[in-house]
């Protein structure tokens, strides 16, 4: 499960490698890390392309770097389902694109189920297979293209907002 | 040369050997405790508990029982009480510690007043007397420290995760409540055996200082642990020798050394930006 960025204590004396490794404690029988565990950490770090921050203090990273480190911690235990709550709120556009592309890859290549909570319908729509729109009650459930072509949604959001979400400005 | 021969002579004394032995173990266990307590913002609890152990030591002297028999259960109880006050009575943790701490000092002072005959004994609990500890106290200090060290090694990775991200630790299947309870019990034991060595007024600094000093320079959790233990050992061992050489109170000398080390690393970090 992914945590929000605000948990990062800027003084915490731990580097990225140690934080990512702690994700392995889920369902771990032995309380001590093995060399295989360290190899797993290295391979995740390589996959996410964050070798440069491996030995950096977690509190000294930028929002995007912390998010990558925490994503690595979440996926290192190889979960079947990833639940992400507003994972991109503190990210700049480049990091956000990287993030969405990466979890899309996780979904398609490694068959991970991803449940992502977001306010950013436009960005999420491009990647999500199914959208569940909640506003106290279920407003919509279906694919993004169904969402964009639904006349009910046009009524609910108004023409302009729906076009904006679906980026059909022309 | 004269100093070296004095030091060489000093290690031949049995009381210095006992002091070094118990001091070494206490230095390691309190430094390890301190790292996790400081990172969980709980280091002030040790200060509160040391005041409680002062009151319980006074009570033991009044009724003529061994302070350890009285202090251990009462201090463990106090640590649970502080935790409960914070989690159930919705009192801020610093206020909860303040309540328990000042209340026990008050009780301690009243007991000392009633039994005015043991003022000298209580002084050794307030400010410690590492050079005058008995073989049993040495053995107890070593045993308590060893248990602490072993428990921290076993649960090291769990404690790390709880300190960084308690919610994540919980969903990782770590029994946070159980570990918290174990940890505060161990903390109470170390404080009770430690007050005879550095004193109720000063034991918490043995827990807090090494962690905060190494926080100035540590660039990983592993280095944080290594620095804390080294700094703690350095201050305790040099403290014992220099208090012997200068005929100064040992507990206070150790704490002063810790203060100097903190200042040095604090300034070095400001200049060289280790972090």
Describe the 3D structure.
Helices cover 44% and strands 12% of the residues of chain A. With 170 residues, chain A is of the alpha+beta class. In chain A, strands 1-2 form a two-stranded parallel sheet. A two-stranded antiparallel ribbon of chain A has the order 3-4. In chain A, helix 7 (151-157) crosses helix 8 (159-166). The longest helix of chain A has 17 residues, at 93-109. Mean pLDDT of chain A is 83; it is low at 1-7. In chain B, helix 3 runs antiparallel to helix 11 (203-215). The longest helix of chain B is centred in the N-terminal third of the chain and has 26 residues, at 14-39. Chain A binds chain B through residues 1, 3, 7, 9, 11-15, 17-19, 22, 25-27, 31-33, 55, 57-58, 60, and chain B through 39, 154-158, 160-161, 163-165, 167-169, 171-174, 214-215, 218-224, 275.
Residues in helix, % of chain B: over 70%
Q: What's the total helix number of chain B?
A: 13
CATH architecture of chain B, please?
A: Orthogonal Bundle
- The end-to-end span of chain A amounts to 39 Å
Query: Spatial order of the strands in the main sheet of chain A?
Result: 1-2
- Helical fraction of chain A: 40-55%
Largest interface: A-B, 23 and 28 residues
Question: Count of helical segments of chain A?
Answer: 8
Average residue-wise pLDDT of chain B:
90
Number of strand elements of chain A:
4
Main β-sheet of chain A: number of strands, strand sense, barrel status? 2 strands, parallel
Q: How many domains comprise the coordinates of chain B? A: 1
Order of helices and strands of chain A: HHHEHEHEEHHH
| Beginning-to-end CA distance, first to last residue of chain B | 40 Å
Overall 3D shape of chain B: globular
Largest sheet of chain B, if any? none
């Amino acid at each position: 499960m992914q945590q929000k960025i605000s948990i990062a204590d800027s003084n915490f004396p731990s580097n990225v490698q140690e934080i990512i490794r702690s994700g392995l404690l889920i369902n771990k029988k032995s309380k001590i890390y093995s060399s295989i565990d360290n190899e797993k950490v290295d391979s995740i770090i390589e996959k996410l392309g964050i070798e440069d921050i491996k030995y950096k203090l977690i509190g000294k990273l930028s929002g995007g770097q912390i998010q990558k480190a925490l994503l690595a911690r979440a996926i290192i235990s190889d979960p079947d389902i990833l639940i992400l709550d507003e994972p991109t709120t503190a990210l700049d556009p480049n990091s956000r694109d990287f993030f969405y592309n990466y979890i899309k890859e996780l979904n398609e290549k490694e068959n991970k189920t991803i449940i992502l909570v977001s306010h950013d319908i436009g960005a999420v729509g491009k990647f999500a297979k199914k959208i569940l729109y909640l506003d106290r009650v279920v407003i919509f459930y279906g694919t993004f293209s169904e969402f964009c072509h639904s006349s009910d949604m046009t009524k609910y959001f108004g023409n302009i907002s729906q076009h904006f979400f679906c980026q059909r400005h022309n | 040369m004269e100093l070296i021969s004095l030091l060489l002579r000093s290690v031949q004394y049995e009381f210095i050997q006992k002091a070094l032995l118990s001091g070494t173990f206490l230095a390691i266990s309190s430094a390890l405790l301190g790292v996790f307590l400081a990172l969980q913002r709980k280091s002030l609890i040790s200060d509160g508990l040391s005041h409680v152990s002062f009151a319980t030591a006074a009570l033991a002297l009044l009724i003529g029982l061994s302070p350890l028999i009285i202090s251990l259960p009462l201090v463990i109880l106090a640590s649970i009480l502080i935790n409960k006050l914070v989690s159930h009575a919705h009192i801020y943790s610093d206020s909860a510690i303040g309540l328990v701490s000042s209340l026990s000092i008050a009780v301690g002072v009243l007991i000392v007043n009633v039994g005015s005959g043991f003022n000298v004994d209580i002084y050794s609990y307030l400010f410690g007397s590492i050079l005058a500890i008995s073989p049993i106290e040495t053995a107890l200090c070593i045993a308590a420290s060893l248990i602490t060290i072993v428990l921290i090694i076993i649960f090291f990775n769990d404690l790390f995760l709880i300190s960084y991200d308690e919610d994540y630790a919980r969903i990782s299947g770590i029994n946070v409540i159980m570990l918290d309870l174990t940890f505060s019990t161990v903390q109470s034991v170390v404080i009770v055996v430690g007050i005879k060595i550095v004193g109720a007024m000063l034991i918490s600094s043995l827990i807090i200082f090494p962690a905060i000093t190494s926080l100035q320079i540590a660039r990983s959790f592993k280095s944080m642990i290594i620095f804390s233990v080294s700094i703690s050992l350095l201050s305790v061992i040099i403290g014992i020798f220099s208090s012997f050489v200068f005929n100064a109170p040992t507990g206070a000398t150790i704490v002063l050394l810790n203060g100097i080390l903190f200042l040095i690393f604090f300034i070095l970090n400001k200049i060289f930006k280790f972090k």
